Batch of 4 targets.
Target 1
Amino acid sequence: MNLSSTTDGNRRVVTVNESRIDAAVALTFKEQMRTETESGPDTVILDLQQVQFVDSSGLGAIVAAMKTMGKGRTLALAGLNPTVSKVFQLTRMDSVFQLFPTLDDALDSLDA
């Protein structure tokens, strides 16, 4: 699992540099997200632009990453393709996470 991150003022952007978040990488994803988000800004944007597929284990790993961040912190998701977005809609996780079509949309919205 390849994640990278940048911090811009009061936000951290964590980019998933893989095409899948599934059972094969879910545990590694959770651990790396914990490392990337354990300190730093309260607002974290998970950039999923390169992700083409998320299964139930991947969805669970994203939810676990949000819970690990703790109260008072925000995990927003950006760059979901239609297939990945549909997973969040069908599971109603779109009511749990703020979803943005692009990273720029997330940055602009979370600036306001």
Target 2
Amino acid sequence: MDMASHPTPPAAPFGLTGHGQRDRWLALALDAAEANAFYAPDMLGAAIDHLAGDGDVHLIEARDGDMAIGLLPVVRKPRHGRLPIGCVANWMHDHCFFGAPIIRQGHEVAAWRNFLAQLDAAPWARGFLHLQGLDAAGANAAALEALCVEQRRGRLEIHRYDRAMLRSDLTADAYWETQVRSKKRKELRRLQKRLAEMGAVETRLLSEPDELARWCGDFLALEASGWKGQEGTALECKPADAAFFHAACTAAFDAGRLHMLRIDLDDRAIAMLVNFRHGEGAFSFKIAFDETLGRFSPGVLIEIANLNAVQADPAIGWMDSCAAPDHPMIDSLWAERRTIVQYRIALHGAGVARMQRSAAFALANGVEAIARKMKGQA
């Protein structure tokens, strides 16, 4: 719907408040054109409650009448990378690994027209829109490209990389036989046998609500026991991160979207994996394992358990690893790839705001072009 004929309320700073608002966004998430567990209301709400600074996050809601057709969390940034240029960016906190806004199926271009119109009109939206963590082949990327062509709005892809994903109709056994070298399969079977000689090994998928709190505590302790704890990057190292983890897991479990596995040795967790589901997809969030048992490759063993669990679940069509590019472990286990991109999108407006935004977009593009040229000549 055209913004001029049906204005949308201004972007809401901070908080998922009001039952009506929550209901609209829950309905939107159930009809999303592109799955993103990190922006689904339960996980986004946990992040806002525990990870957002006061007033830092603006929730831009695109609506068609009383129906929500899009939800985009954004933050203002004083710098764009190394450039002292202010901009607006989709909000990706330290524990968010995919940045696609939630948009309703069949309303993809309309939602983006609405988002950009609100940003164009917002006096706080400086510079341009920096979008991170999108799927190059996803619904958001396609709608953005179409709309930017229609509006003659500047759009530049500034980075891309591939990361592992699991998307296959094969059974877990068939996938394992097809994608993993026989030598590696043999070695892992040997490690599983040696581990079993040390005690009772049990692999479980969380199903009981009364076990959730203990599993969350076990995961935090296991992660903190390794190198992440030593470097201060484990979730338990920061109270806000730990609170977010508990809240996100609880909300996702209540919504039927938490997928959490563990391997126990004599009733003690030695490897755990947390995934979040949305729609027909899932996102691998965090892994933790006992590094003192590294000779048994517990991280790989939990991924084997995950492969079996995912491929046996007809409700999960695919899983995004959310891993860094060229990850040595998961890249060797999962054959499929997802291309993740970043875009710089020009913002319009009127008067001085339009001139400032146009200059910021041109300056950022020009500096990067010069840097690429110099790098190519080096």
Target 3
Amino acid sequence: MALSPVTQASPAPGRITRVMIVDDSAVIRGMIGRWLTEAGGFEIVATASNGRMAVDAAARTKPEIILLDLEMPEIDGLAALPLILKAHPASKVIVISTLTQRNAEISLKCLSLGAVDYLAKPESARAPGAANEFRRELVEKMRALSETKARTPRFSAAPAPKVVSPAPAAIPRPGSTKPQCLLIGSSTGGPRAVERVLLDMKPALSRIPVLIVQHMPAMFTAVFADHLQTLLSLPAREARDGDAVAPGTILVAPGGRHMGVVSSGGKVAIRLNDGPPENFCRPAVDVLFREAAAIYGASALAVVLTGMGSDGTHGARILSKAGATVIAQDEATSIVWGMPGSIVKAGLAHEVLPLESIGRSLKGLITGAST
């Protein structure tokens, strides 16, 4: 199971988030409900044992966050999701499933249909600590989503005019060094955001290697990489130790392992390691950013997209000192403005852009064409 990207925070004073739990197991529903009640700041307004009941309950109780199991009788989570969002579009849905390749594929499909995040259930055969880790990750994801403004992030299909945050939020871009590597860090809401950015800059992808750290469980990262390859019709895969970092290739950090880079004989290759989590994450964006800064310097180009926590901020500081360009997603289009918000608040963002403008900006920087 992926490690949680933030430490547990206390609920905002007086803020109560309305929650619905959908799972065919009464034991699971009761356990999750008890955890959230004990955490404080959450009210369980409805529970359901199948997708059909969930659709009716969502329309009736209007929960802010819905925990949705995938494997249920009558209507499963995948089929229920669009019906739930139609019944109550403002709800934020977290998909929960056991960690299998099939469920990883279904979970990513759910994200494309409007779910905002996913959680892997611990398996009974695993170590006792897995349940505690699941509980911590659940509460922290719930807390991050509950503190997000009540809004629907924009994922418009048509390109929007380039919008940059007010001057205090952005710093001047470094010199005109041509980018030699694109680094992307993301977490909650990241898969959809990564897809959008890469699709919008697709004509430039053949010119540069792309290295992605997306906070995901181990099995999910391989499925996500395969999905990107199908979507983009370009080489994309889960990174392996020693893989060449070459233009036109997209490499995704494997869940549970840090991904960095090493230079030897004038060539750059992937370096994976099992070092301790950083920012409670493995893989951590910070690891990739600081190792890339040492090799690429000012020719690195980094993007921090939607996600909870502050992973990437320390690495972005090192990149910035090396002369690299750092771009952050804006608050309005982020599912959770934790990671990009931390970059902006630290004064490390050279541009702060809505999601629909990031790909075009990157394409311009890489090709030298005006955006």
Target 4
Amino acid sequence: MAETKKIRTTVDIYGQQYVIVGTESSSHIRLVASMVDDKMREIGSKNPSLDVSKLAVLTALNAMNDLVKLKDHVEKLESELNRVKE
């Protein structure tokens, strides 16, 4: 069984450094971390009294909400495509 090489990438999110270990490219990890940082800063600017842990949870909720909406959209498009193919 071939082992997938793990890549270590250091990123900065909301002023904190994190070492992310995974199989995605460093550029992919940096992009995702940048998006998380941007969303945290956006939410934080609208709610300056939030502590970092609540800000992180709100950021995660926003990200999962976007993911659910995208999955629903993909399902609708796949359904429409299947209908057109028939």
